[in-house]
Write a structure and sequence with these properties.
Layout (H helix, E strand, L loop, with lengths): L11 H11 L5 H23 L5 E5 L5 H6 L5 E6 L2 H10 L4 E4 L13 E6 L8 H14 E11 L8 H11 L13 H10 L2 E9 L12 H10 L12 E8 L1
Parallel strand pairs: 1-2, 1-4, 2-3, 4-5
Antiparallel strand pairs: 5-7, 6-7
This protein binds S-adenosylmethionine (SAM).
């Protein structure tokens, strides 16, 4: 039985793994986040400087509050929403000022009670069921102010050097009932999706170029240096594993 994405992070064990394993101190994901975080902070600071009024942020699918905890101090008001109570419980502990809500925004409109200047959605789009991607992006579009920004990432680019490893892992996982999530989207697919949901891409950034497997070899230091050099708004961004898009309403 395939687990729906809404159920993927409901159990405490899965939450604990996300927090301490996926985002353990030495993990690949943590290293990419160390590259992405300053870019995200800069984008939010720049945006806040252009605004005359207080900035209200929504972190959609906020999970454990990894992103929200970093952005909360930069904005006047912050909210997070997630479908997993156990994920949100960690976010509550890390984000004392943010209002956190739990539930399905498609069936419970009251979970998004405001209009937002900034909406972030990290590590959500790639793995949610394709039929929900559009519905949720369109719902986020409805609550984004006309001058607002959506900052959304796709953490599995099918046009990156990680692709062959994903193909290999998919083959090995064939027939297994459960396993790792091995989804991918290309930059072109993501752009089409965002446009279809009423967003115009303002800027694109990329993080992580070399295959993550290298991080588990003696070449880890070299891989880190290359990925550090090619992080952000770089010529290689369409080939990066983790794609970050800054969008405004079209
Ligand atoms: C991989 S985690 C990412 C958490 C956080 N954004 C981050 O980057 O660390 C994906 C999150 O999406 C949440 N999620 C899945 N389906 C959802 C839905 N339909 N509405 C809101 N959150 C959802 C999960 O509960 C989980 O917390």
């Amino acid at each position: 039985m395939t687990v729906s994405y809404a159920n993927r992070f409901q159990q405490k064990d899965d939450v604990a793994f996300y927090e301490a394993g996926e985002y353990g101190a030495e993990s690949y994901a943590s290293y990419i986040w160390r590259l992405q975080r300053p870019v995200l902070e800069r984008l939010v600071r720049e945006f806040c400087r252009t605004q005359t009024g207080p900035v209200r942020l929504l972190d959609f699918a906020c999970g454990t509050g990894r992103v929200l905890a970093v952005l909360e101090p930069l904005v006047a008001a912050a909210e997070g929403v997630d479908i997993s109570e156990n994920m949100a419980a960690l976010a509550r502990a890390k984000c004392p000022r943010a209002q956190l809500r739990v539930g399905d925004v498609l069936t419970h409109p009251e979970l998004l009670p405001n209009r937002y200047d900034l909406i972030t959605a990290f590590r959500f789009l790639l793995n949610v069921e394709p039929e929900l991607r559009q519905q949720i992006l369109k719902r986020l579009r409805q609550v984004l102010r006309p001058e607002g920004r959506l900052l959304v990432n796709v953490h599995g680019n099918s046009r990156s050097l990680r692709h062959p490893a994903i193909v290999w892992r998919r083959r090995r996982a064939r027939g297994a009932k459960t396993g790792p999530m091995l989804n991918e989207m290309s930059p072109a697919e993501t752009k089409i999706l965002l446009r279809a949901c009423g967003f115009q891409i303002v800027r694109q950034f990329g993080f992580g170029v070399l295959p993550p497997t290298l991080y588990r070899t003696p070449l880890r230091g070299v891989a880190q240096a290359v990925d550090r050099g090619l992080a952000g708004d770089h010529w290689w961004k369409d080939g990066s594993i983790d794609l970050l898009f800054e969008c405004r309403p079209a």
